[in-house]
Amino acid sequence: MPLFLVAAGETVIVQQTGGSTQIRQRLVDLGLTRGAELHMLKNDPASPLLIALNHDSRLALDRRLAHHILVSLPDTTA
Length: 78
Known about the structure:
Layout: E1 11-17, H1 21-29, E2 37-42, E3 49-53, E4 57-61, H2 63-66, E5 69-72
Antiparallel strand pairs: 1-2, 1-5, 2-3, 3-4
């Protein structure tokens, strides 16, 4: 699912990024790569997403960038 659909309070794992080469590089620069764990702190349609990245960084992410990040719920079967 696209990151912008994740509800506040949910934790997800980055599966894939898309967009132009420039957009993908920007996401890499922010640390938003495959396998990164994201915790949605705030998802208000009128403002940027606020996420915690790998438990140690907080990012305000433009909603347009969030459209290029596909995530899934963590595997809890282990």
